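Possible regression after last week's pipeline update?

I re-ran a chain I had predicted before the update to compare outputs. Posting the input and the new output here so someone can diff against the archived version. Not blocking, just want to make sure nothing changed silently.
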Amino acid sequence: MQIALFQPDIPPNTGTILRLCACLDVAAHVIEPAGFAVSDRTFRRAGMDYLDHVKLMRHDSWAKFEEWRRAGGYRLVLFTTKGAISYLDFRYDAADILLFGRETAGVPEEVAAAADARLKIPIRPALRSLNVAMAAAMAVGEALRQTGGPMQEMR
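New output (post-update):
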């Protein structure tokens, strides 16, 4: 299981997601450009000492990430408020990449069109969205539950 962040805007959210990845042994990808200076120092401030425990790969652009993903044959699962399928009704694969967009703008249509699936986390209709780190935690938790990932060892 892997998590990819498309041009993240907010360093603390990125750090929280990197910490989540470290704790659950999930690889992380940051697709640049980000809305902040992408450096170990920035990530360390947000993700504390967990950065040494996360498998982190940075991609200079969407095109480079997509080239890498296609070469590896990974399925891309986009989480979006515009998704038609609930994340709870989807069948995950252990090799999936769970993609999360910018906190302020999501992903452009080009990125959404490349996704193999577009999922949503159902929330109350009057509200806009969840925090991206919260959404990532919910999504990876369900994906790992289904695929028998590291969380299964904790039972």
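Follow-up from reviewer: compared with the archived run. The chain has one domain: 2-154. Marking as no regression found.
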